[in-house]
Design goal:
The chain has one domain: Vaccinia Virus protein VP39 (Rossmann fold, 3-Layer(aba) Sandwich). It has 6 helices and 7 strands, in the order H-H-E-H-E-H-E-E-H-E-H-E-E. The chain has a 7-stranded mixed beta sheet with strand order 3-2-1-4-5-7-6, sandwiched between helices. The termini are far apart. The relative contact order is 0.16.
């Protein structure tokens, strides 16, 4: 797993992220219980929290979780998701620039599709092209690769968009 500094991450968000476009793409609903896998400093958990019932921010790094502000509907979990997720009844799952780091992609998707039965999964990843920002291109996942991975677990693509250096993909459990 590569590591990043939070100041640089904040700069990248400020320059390249449209928060409104992200929220619109996720399409949160008041009844949603969202799992934010690899939540880091909780930026996306906080961004979605006003629109949903509950957000569960998962990260293996304690220092990351300590940066997430205390909010009534955000639950912080210090957990290596490769050891399994709690069965909380997530309606949506988001992986924001974290899926490429997971060594347990198949097992986590198997759990989401067969045990938890998460209906919607949203991904935001760096485009798989050379650039001076983000993880090494060798570990990035292209949109086509992501589609194949999700198809193997019973998820169908239902939407996609781009934000300059990122792509976003949404999948629904078939």
């Amino acid at each position: 797993m590569h590591h990043f500094n939070y100041e640089r991450t904040a700069m990248i968000r400020q320059k390249f992220l449209d928060p409104g476009k992200f929220v619109t793409f996720v399409a949160p609903e008041r009844s949603d219980v969202v799992a934010d896998i690899g939540a880091g400093d909780g930026y996306y958990s906080v961004l979605l929290s006003p629109y949903v019932r509950e957000v569960h921010a998962f990260d293996a790094q304690h220092d990351s979780l300590s940066l997430i502000p205390d909010k009534q509907n955000i639950r912080k979990h210090r957990l290596d998701v490769c050891s399994g997720l709690p069965h909380i009844g997530f309606t949506k799952v988001i992986f924001v620039n974290s899926f490429h780091d997971l060594l347990c992609r198949d097992s986590i998707l198997r759990q989401l599709s067969h045990e938890i039965k998460a209906q919607i999964i949203v991904f935001m990843e760096f485009k798989k092209q050379e650039m001076n920002i983000g993880p090494p291109v060798s570990i990035r996942i292209s949109e086509g690769e992501l589609d194949k991975i999700l198809d193997n677990h019973g998820y169908l693509p239902v939407g996609g968009t781009e934000m300059e250096i990122f792509y976003l993909r949404k999948f629904r459990l078939a």
